[in-house]
Amino acid sequence: MKKWFIGVDGGGTKTAAAVSLPDGKPAAETVGKGCSYQMLGVDGAVKVIVEGVRSCLEAAGITLDDCAGCCLGVPCYGENAEKDAAMTEALRQALSPVPLHIVNDVEVGWAGALACQAGIHIVAGTGAIAFGKGLDQRAARCGGWNEFFGDEGSCYWVGREAMSLFTKQADGRIPRGPLYDVVRRELSLSEDIRFIDIAVSDLAPYRDKVAAFQLYASQAAKLGDPAAVLLYERAARELALLAGALRKELVLPETAGVTYSGGLFRTGSLILDPLARELNSCGCVLQKPEKSALEGALLLAVEQFHEKGR
């Protein structure tokens, strides 16, 4: 009997895979690099996902033939029909004979954080997106438009805004705070003007490096830099807008629960406190996630394929 289930939580920065029995509890997990087809192309993204799945199966001592189904949370999925179709076909061939359920990565975040119950989930990692499901099971998403003109509140957005704050502090357009010293130290800047070449050549071409610049803002905010603190308050306001839009779109309890995942939330109270305040103003309440996005992928796999696997 095929009794195992595969879950994948893909993202722009990392891809995690796990296997479980029908209880949805991970028996083995692996983590690899990001699997965004915007960054790697379809073939590159599929390669990362398949390698992650096979590595996880090997760690658990099982094969694809032992698996009843697989749920894959894939970044950018649902945004380009041609690429979605190419990725779906390539994954089906590579992971045959396991049946697949492929969704955007924000959905596996929701499934884990809310245990597949009605509510809203915000992902603020490299990008920013929200997904919700109502009491009537209707689903909707908001955000995730692309870092060039959207993804407000994401690590990328905070990183890019922090770069701008550094240049303003360097010029004296705003008072210098800890951010100025943090960036100079971390980038070994002998002269402020060198930041232009580093940013253009070494940071801007890479989404993950711009997103990682957010860490300098977080260091500065924790050291009391008022401009950096305000930046996280602005990010919270942008993320709350995502939840507020879904609150109006979906049939939800009077006070809608909003959960969260993604690298930005590793800053803790810097983002969570202002986000809680912003959410309260639009009839939502911030909730701690019940499970991880990876566990959410397993829950969806079990939900989709448990009966079929018997």
Structural notes for this entry:
This protein is of the alpha/beta class. It is built from eleven helices and ten strands. The protein has helices at residues 37-60, 81-95, 105-113, 155-171, 178-186, 194-203, 207-212, 214-222, 226-249, 269-280, 293-305, and strands at residues 4-10, 14-20, 26-33, 67-74, 100-104, 119-124, 128-133, 139-143, 256-261, 284-286. The strands form two sheets. Strands 3-2-1-4-5 form a five-stranded mixed beta sheet, sandwiched between helices. 50% of the residues are buried. The model has no long low-confidence stretch (mean pLDDT 92).
Descriptive keywords:
globular, 310 residues, five-stranded mixed β-sheet, 20% strand, alpha/beta
Question: Oligomeric status of the shown chains?
Answer: single chain
Radius of gyration: 20 Å
The helix tally amounts to 11
Poorly predicted spans = none
Question: Secondary-structure element order, as H and E?
Answer: EEEHEHEHEEEHHHHHHEHEH
Please estimate the helix content: 40-55%
Largest sheet: 5 strands, mixed
How much beta, percentage-wise? 15-25%
| Average residue-wise pLDDT | 92
Q: Count the strands? A: 10
Spatial shape: globular
Helix- and strand-based class? alpha/beta
Strand order of the largest sheet: 3-2-1-4-5
How far from one another are the termini?
Answer: 7 Å
